[in-house]
Amino acid sequence: MDVSTEENGGVLVVTATTETARFHALWLRDNALDDETRDARNGQRLITLSDIPGDVRIAAAEAEGGQVVCIFAPDGHVARFPVRWLMAHRYDVADQAARLDPEIETWDGSLTPVPVADMRDLERDDAALSDWLGAAVRYGFAKVTGLGTEEGGLFRVVDLFGYVRETNYGRLFEVRSEINPVNLAYTGLGLQAHTDNPYRDPVPSLQILACLENSAEGGASAVVDGFAAAMRLEAEDPDAFALLSDFPVRFDYSGTSGVRLQSRQPMIALSPDGQIQQIRFNARSIAPVVDVPFEKMEAFYAAYRKFDAIIDDPDMAVTFKLDPGEAFIVDNTRVMHARTGYSGAGTRWLQGCYADKDGLRSKHAALTNRKEPASGRA
Ligand code: FE2
What we know:
The chain has helices at 25-30, 83-88, 119-124, 126-139, 154-159, 226-236, 238-246, 294-312, 357-367; strands spanning 2-6, 11-16, 19-24, 57-64, 67-73, 78-82, 116-118, 141-145, 164-165, 173-175, 191-194, 206-214, 217-218, 221-225, 248-253, 261-266, 268-270, 276-279, 317-320, 327-331, 335-339, 342-343, 348-355. By secondary structure, the chain is of the alpha+beta class. The protein folds into two domains: 2-88, 2-Layer Sandwich (NE0471 N-terminal domain-like), CATH 3.30.2020; 116-367, Double-stranded beta-helix. Strands 7, 8, 9, 10, 12, 20 and 23 form a seven-stranded mixed β-sheet that branches. A hairpin with a 5-residue loop joins strand 17 and strand 18. The two termini are 18 Å apart. Residues 373-378 have low confidence and may be disordered. Fe (ii) ion (FE2) binds next to loops.
């Protein structure tokens, strides 16, 4: 390891193996791992920016074992940074912003095998649970078998990692044909691939659907990777991608008495540095588009049509028939779900509920020991 400073102590330069990275003195002082800067019990920061001198710089820096020891001026504060930690947090990289979170993997209809695990394994084996949660993070959906057909059994899936998100549809909702449905989901109509509840802000970020009966003709389930669809749209037509990510649309739901849910968000939501963060796509609940200038409305509709066609492309969909006792979970900010129409003899009865993916990601990270060291004594 090689350690030096530049710009009169304003910058630390670290070379470890073949990689070199620069760090600003202020950044290092703000992120120091010592017990005066961070609480050793919970890792939370004990200082605010105003506690750091505005003219902070590195008076001296040296390598010591696997650590870099920095003495800051003007206050003489000493902080030790494991080089492993520094390299894991380096920001001195070219091409920092990618379209996709590196933790995820996009897919199309050729994805095999579908991520799946047996409920009995998930409930007793942390390694199996970690793998399954990891697949849900990476692919944005995963199946469960062996859940049984008890009513409310889907809550056991949520119990694996988090909490149910209750809405006006209840703690759970029944997905089967109804005479006067409050939502077209509760009919035998086929449903185009969609994300649920885009009229909420924030949307429920996970949906779980469990099958109790499925003897109807049709009624297959399908999932489409919305991030893959957005990436394909950008590759085929960058201007269309820009229109759908630059302009918000509105979503609206008022199918239940006393409920009027509205949101204003883009179909393809990007972070400020351009990473795809969320897809909202639902033909049933999109409201009149009023936030696109007159001059761009035709181009906007052409872009919307292209995105729609990509989403409907059978090559994009992973299709499966959910058997009684099976369930699946989808990341409702990314993966769209669909079903084919069904009718005639037999019944199709699913129960659904919502949850949020902060809990899922947290459980996965905790199980895979990715928690960062709370202090420098790694
Ligand atoms: Fe849905």
